[in-house]
Amino acid sequence: MYETLINEFLQTAEESGVRYNTDKLRDAAEFAAEMHHGQLRKSGEPYLIHPLEVGKILMSYGMDEACIIASLLHDVVEDTEVTKEDVAQRYSPEIAELVDGVTKLGRINYTSKEEQQVENLRKMLLAMAKDIRVIMIKLADRLHNMRTLEYQTEDKKRMKAIETLEVYAPLAHRLGIQNLKSELEDTALKYIDPIGYEEIVNDLEVFHENNERFTRIKKMITESLEREGIKATIESRIKHIYSIYRKMFKQNKEFDEIYDLYAFRIIVDKTTECYNVLGLMHDLFTAIPGRLKDYIATPKPNMYQSLHTTVSFEGYLFEIQVRTQEMHRIAELGIAAHWKYKTGRIGKDPLDEKLSWVRKLLEVQSDVNDADDFMKTFKIDLFADQVFVSTPKGDIITLHADSTVIDFAYAIHTQVGNKMIGAKINGRIVELTSRMQNGDVVEILTSDTSGGPSRDWLNLVKTNEAKAKIRQWFKKEKREENIQQGRADLDREMRRSLINVANVDEKELFAPILSRYGLETQDDLYAAIGYGAVSISKILPKLKVDYSRMIRKQTEPEQQVVRPVRKTTGGVVVDDIDNCLVRLAGCCVPVPGDEIVGFITRGNGVTVHQASCPHLKGIEPGRLVKVHWEEAENEYFNAALTLDALNRIDLMADISSALAQMHIMTRGLSMQQMPHGDVRVVLNIEVHSLSHLEIVAKRLRKLKDVLKVERS
Ligand code: MN
Fold first, then answer.
1. Residues 513 and 426 in one domain
2. Distance separating alpha carbons of residues 470 and 455, to the nearest angstrom
3. Residue 637 near residue 693, CB atoms below 8 Å
4. How far apart, in whole angstroms, are the C-alpha atoms of residue 308 and residue 305?
5. Residue 9 sits in the same domain as residue 47
6. Which among 51, 88, 120, 574 is placed 20 to 30 Å from 359, CA to CA?
7. How close is the Cα of 54 to the center of ligand 1, in Å?
8. Full residue range of the structural domain in which residue 410 is found
9. How far apart are CA 158 and CA 181, in angstroms?
């Protein structure tokens, strides 16, 4: 029973003009028959008819042997026990890849979408196919399914028809396979708008029967070419049903308002003859200005070449196309013409050269309509840097090829990314670092209690969009954490670069960085580092330069600030006595800020003590006088600090350098060994005020091995 079908198929192969290995085709057809045995199509026919018909369609486009064998097996992996590996072993890895490609394309779910989404879907199909032959098989598969669509349910008819119109016909168009495109469109229309379709079919029949003018025009053309001795084939053509339908719909026209319903096609041998014929036609009929298109000089992106002109005769408009045999072949077969050449039916063909010529042309001629699209179509790996994946609902997301599922989550919506806790690819839970393949269905698992993205994600994601969104989140949600993180990171890096902010004026050091990034406070800077908006490696060089300049300023003697005149006796105002000699007591050494009392000495003016000074005890109240501190910035006062520490070789060096860094003048210094191995250091220094003294004490307390610092 299959024998007849297979023989008929092989008969078609022999008549195709392509030299196929009949034994190999028979083997593949018999294998398909065996595997699909018992399966029936909706029409009740054996399933085998389907792959055989798909193969026949592809043979009519001159596709190569691998492609035909793959088409015979295109449903076995999906519908039977046969695996891709079986096909690779029995036939070849190449054929297995083709079958696998078609199987994968078949798994894409299609639901009607907005134009942009449909465009993404078409690109996804091309990206997944990797090999244009996979698309060819898919198109042939779809064409046969459309031809036999009547056996399906109403829902399925409509769905398949819309998908064909939106996805597959445009693909065929891009590949330049006009016949296939037109048949796909016409069969689809039949199911989408059966009434509109029937009307046009009827109108066309009536139009054809009543139009003897059409026959007359054809005769005029034939005779004029014969007179000039030009050998030509003349074809007359009626517009495809769908293109009439589209025109009526788009331009809101009635059937009889469409003037280019008819077109004549004149096919000649040589390119020069094309232009001769054009001249003849313009003599014969009236050319309509602005309707001449020279696609020979400027081919369409899909390699299409022809001369088009619209002329009128007795008030009736029609189009004439003129082209050579070679141009005609390419126009009819589109990209498939390439395989006709490769399968060796025609010996050496300049087509390859022409293809590269077209490519070059496209590169320089960027204003060619659709050129970009064509290039993407032809070089099918042009999508190598992109990956097309879909949501469970079928929305297609285009991402950088190395993207992880986190990128995907953020591409859907910022909130989806922020609440992400996991992901599934094709239903299986995967790691967040997982990459995706073309056609994968990716589902993001979210939770309202997820706690937000992790900082590591910044290193995992590939797209700038996702990075920006993650940073945004950290910026908003985690200011405190960012400040801490940023400060810790910056401190660590500064330590590595030997920058010690304690040695310089921190504000002065950071001011240029803050203003460069438009930040107000140092916390803002830490926060920005924390969420990744400011990178430490970018600010560190500047910090280093500024820091060493500031340190140099402090240590270079010639640059030292001129110290103010020291008035160790000044700064105190005796309330009731003018112009008296004032001295600060040596016993308690008061500094500004201390509560003070004046002691009137015999013949030596007023000595100023701390109010709490034990020496004042028992003094006659009459010899005490009220005094207060004068407010003056540049005054210095002696003060004493006692410092207890564990002794070590460089303890004194550390103390001196700390004092030097704070610009503290040391007046006296003594050191004494204490009983438990400690040392006591007494420092006599100059300070501005009590609070200044406190700052110095604090700084000294931070030194290593220092146990205690107190005023003496
Ligand atoms: Mn199929």
1. no
2. 8
3. no
4. 10
5. yes
6. 120
7. 8
8. 384-475
9. 18
Rounded to whole angstroms, the Cα distance separating 527 from 534 reads 9
Which tens digit of pLDDT belongs to each residue from 93-125?
989 989 998 988 887 767 666 777 777 777 777
pLDDT in tens, 185-244: 999 999 999 998 998 888 888 777 666 777 888 899 999 999 999 999 998 877 788 988
Q: Which of 78, 150, 381, 402 is catalytic?
A: 78
pLDDT tens-digit map of 57-72 = 998 877 888 889 999 9
How many C-beta atoms lie closer than 10 Å to residue 396's C-beta? 20
Whether residues 313 and 402 fall in one domain: no
Q: Report the C-alpha gap between 672 and 682 in whole angstroms.
A: 9
Report yes or no: 462 and 385 within 8 Å, Cβ to Cβ: no
- pLDDT tens-digit readout, 507-564: 889 999 898 888 888 888 998 888 788 888 888 888 888 888 888 877 655 433 334 3
Q: Is 79 a catalytic residue?
A: yes
Output 700-704 pairs: Cβ under 8 A, ≥24 positions apart: 700/641, 700/643, 700/655, 700/658, 703/645, 703/654, 703/655, 703/658, 704/654
Instruction: Please state the domain count of the chain.
Output: 6
Q: Report CA(75)–ligand 1 centroid distance (Å).
A: 5
Neighbours of 159 (CB within 10 A): 16
Partners of 683 in the beta sheet? 641, 669
In a domain, residue 443? The reply is yes
